[in-house]
TrEMBL record:
E.C. no: 1.13.12.19, 1.14.20.7
Gene3D superfamilies in UniProt: B-lactam Antibiotic, Isopenicillin N Synthase, Chain
Protein name stated in the entry: 2-oxoglutarate-dependent ethylene/succinate-forming enzyme
Region (Disordered): 101-121
Family: Belongs to the iron/ascorbate-dependent oxidoreductase family.
Length: 341
């Protein structure tokens, strides 16, 4: 049972090793840490998801985007106080439509509660009950996979207990996007970027992609490499929160998407695993000998926290409430420190 392709720019890990005994788990943890200290991205084969659920979720997403525009607009994100719903993006950075979903919760941010708790609340759903069942089942199944990976990372860092389960990701804030990358507009038109190069504001992002490809991540050597689709695999990348908490030992992964097809849309479903909105993001005690030199962006990458303000060994993270940072990003629309300066 091979766990990783050593020469691959995007490592390949086998999730079955997590439950294959102590020695196999230890090998997985070692390779997981190596992947996180490198590109910060890997493909996870055989994630423990219910059989057929990934294919069902992708098909349900395709079915949603095939609805008439007026039905999709009935779920417009502008109608939601909780940043859930449908949107269409057509600009120099984005060429896609998407549906934002999350935990199904009562509305937050009421009365004397902190404003950032408005980020929690109910989802807008299409009329067909099938969508609600499929997407909530998929969301919580992927959440469980994410917790397994965070537990393995805590083990790899030599942390006492599992701070992710105990505090840092207990009842996490979850965001799931169904994304429909539109076909290229025409042979004579310039190619459109599905989403420009960016980093996620999460602990981990777990992505299900269809067979079309088009996802690229920036390797530790600075080149853009394709993440080839693999049936039923999840692409996992680290977000800015992980880079901040580890003082740059683990890197957030710059990534971008271009749907190269002129005929077919590309469908993907990322799940962003974040801390609980009320929790404080604090430094993790990573080994001093793992200290990494500051990374450099050779070209602009959309980041919530600019690289020059990223915590490092000599400048540790000042703890902050995650919900306040996430509200600044969504509620106030500061999604890139440089673009929204």
């Amino acid at each position: 049972m091979r766990m990783i392709e050593p020469t691959a720019a995007v490592p390949i890990l086998d999730a079955r090793l997590l439950e294959a005994g102590p020695e196999a788990r230890a090998r997985f943890v070692t390779q997981l840490v190596e992947a996180c200290r490198g590109t910060g991205c890997f493909q996870l084969l055989h994630p423990p998801l219910p059989s057929g659920l990934s294919r069902e979720a992708l098909q349900a997403a395709r079915d949603f985007f095939a609805l008439p525009l007026e039905e999709k607009l009935a779920l417009d994100i502008a109608h939601s106080q909780h940043f859930r719903g449908y949107s269409r993006m057509s600009n120099g950075r984005d060429w896609r439509e998407q549906l934002h979903l999350g935990r199904e919760e009562p509305p937050g941010g009421l009365d004397s509660e902190p404003t950032y708790l408005r980020l929690q609340g109910p989802n807008p759903w299409p009329r067909d009950e099938r969508w609600r069942r499929v997407f909530l089942t998929y969301l919580h199944a992927v959440e469980a996979v994410g917790h397994q990976l965070l537990e393995a990372l805590a083990q790899g860092l030599g942390l006492t207990g599992n701070p992710f389960a105990e505090e840092l990701a207990k009842e996490p804030y979850l965001v799931m996007k169904l994304i429909h990358y539109l076909p290229q507009p025409g042979a004579e038109a310039p190619p459109r970027s599905g989403v420009a190069s960016h980093c996620d504001f999460s602990w981990l992002t777990l992505l299900l992609q269809d067979e079309l490809g088009g996802l690229q991540v920036r390797s530790s050597s600075g080149e853009w490499v394709d993440v080839e689709p693999r049936p039923d695999a999840l692409v996992v990348n680290l977000g800015e929160l992980m880079q901040m908490a580890t003082r740059g030992v683990f890197q957030a992964t710059p990534h971008r998407v271009t749907n190269r097809s002129h005929e077919k849309a590309r469908t993907s479903i990322p799940v962003f695993l974040c801390p609980n909105l009320r929790s404080r993001v604090t430094p993790l005690p990573v080994p001093h000998e793992w200290a990494a030199p500051p990374c450099v962006d050779p070209a602009h990458v959309h980041r919530v926290v600019p690289l020059e303000r990223m915590p490092r060994a000599e400048h540790p993270l000042a703890p902050f409430v995650f919900g306040e940072a996430e509200w600044k990003r969504k509620g106030r629309g500061i999604w890139c420190a440089e673009c929204c300066a």
